[in-house]
Design a protein that fits this description.
single chain, about 210 residues, alpha/beta, 6-stranded mixed β-sheet, two-stranded antiparallel ribbon, 8 helices
Length: about 210
């Protein structure tokens, strides 16, 4: 990925308030834990310019990294629109994966087409520890798909890449937390005290959360 593009995306995420740090009133994460840091990538969909930048970066990554895929798969729910944008950009079919099978009708977990025997690129908006991606990966593999790569708009670098690697899947990200923090300090979006709080959290997320 072109480093200038990655830096430009990081700047726009701060400028658009999609990266937020709030040490005094931590954010409650989906896991139930507390974090001084919140990354709201879904808001990107409402910004036409940023949406175009991310789509171009994703297509660039697919082409330059040699990601051979027959189908793109978006994870429920936030990965679906990004997969759709990328699939249209690179002229590939798309499916989406539910977190669990639908409780009625055909009880499908994969919607939009047949992934059996096909090489699938799994698309997500945000990766933290990788739990959601592993759920989607399990569903795709049960359906007979081959998943060798996953693409995320943002990687928080909290274990997701390692967990996917253990399953033989490479994670590619358009932006990540170390870069976002560096850009935040460089451009004045994040002062040194706030960065210290974030780094203390990243050193021990569970301990930081439990203490609050």
């Amino acid at each position: 990925m072109n480093e200038d593009m990655r830096r430009a995306l990081a700047v726009e995420l701060w400028r658009s308030d999609m990266v937020r740090v709030r040490a005094d009133e931590p954010f409650r994460l989906a896991s139930g834990g507390l974090s001084p840091l919140y990354i709201d990538i879904r808001r990107l969909l409402g910004d036409g310019g940023l949406r175009g930048l991310v789509t171009a970066m994703g297509a660039f990554t697919i082409e330059r990294s040699g990601l051979e895929a027959d189908v793109l798969a978006g994870g429920e729910t936030a990965g679906i629109p990004f997969a759709a944008l990328l699939a249209a950009s690179v002229a590939k079919p798309m499916v989406y994966v539910r977190k669990k099978p639908k409780g009625h009708g055909a009880a499908a977990q994969i919607e939009g087409g047949d992934a059996s025997g096909k090489r699938v690129l799994l698309v997500e908006d945000l990766v933290t520890a990788g739990g959601s991606l592993l759920t989607f990966l399990d569903a795709l593999e049960r359906a007979g798909a081959r998943v060798e790569d996953a693409l995320a708009v943002f990687d928080r670098r909290q274990g997701g890449e390692q967990r996917l690697a253990e399953r033989g899947v490479r994670l590619h990200s358009l932006c990540d937390l170390p870069l976002a923090l560096a850009i935040g300090v460089e451009r004045g979006f994040l002062d040194s005290a706030a960065r210290g709080v974030v780094e203390a959290y990243l050193d021990d997320p569970e301990g930081w959360s439990a203490a609050r």
